[in-house]
Amino acid sequence: MPLSATKVRLRTFAPETIRNAQATLHAMLDSNIDMMKPGGKPMPVILVGGGAVLVTDGLQAASNIHRPEHAGVANAIGAAIAQIGGEAEQMVSYRTLPRGEAIKQVTQIAVQRAIDAGADANDTAHRGH
Length: 129
Hints:
With about 130 residues, this protein is mainly α. The protein folds into two domains: about 5-80, no CATH class; about 85-129, no CATH class. It has four helices and two strands; from the N terminus they run H-H-E-E-H-H. It has helices at about 5-10, 15-35, 75-80, 100-115; strands at about 45, 60-65. Strands 1-2 form a two-stranded parallel ribbon. The radius of gyration is 23 Å and the shape is elongated. The model has no long low-confidence stretch (mean pLDDT about 85).
């Protein structure tokens, strides 16, 4: 949605509601940044993703705020380059199927699901059990 359309929609809210929402957003960001920063000193923050436009004021926990040129599409880029995964879960009785064989079968199902979702069949790996 273009920023101009967002502004039009926001005009339907009372200005106090918008100010309160922005204050809450900034307080939540400051709190989370405080938890992650080493040494407790303000640090540079890079804002990306669709929600970056909602940060309209400075952040107390940030020494500088950086907004890369294409920050609004960062999530889309991340999704586009992400690895494809597959999951499988199954109830198995070890009385009828040994544990190792059960793990092998369920792993094969998960790998096949990843391939069905677009993963390269020659480049699949699985994480432990």
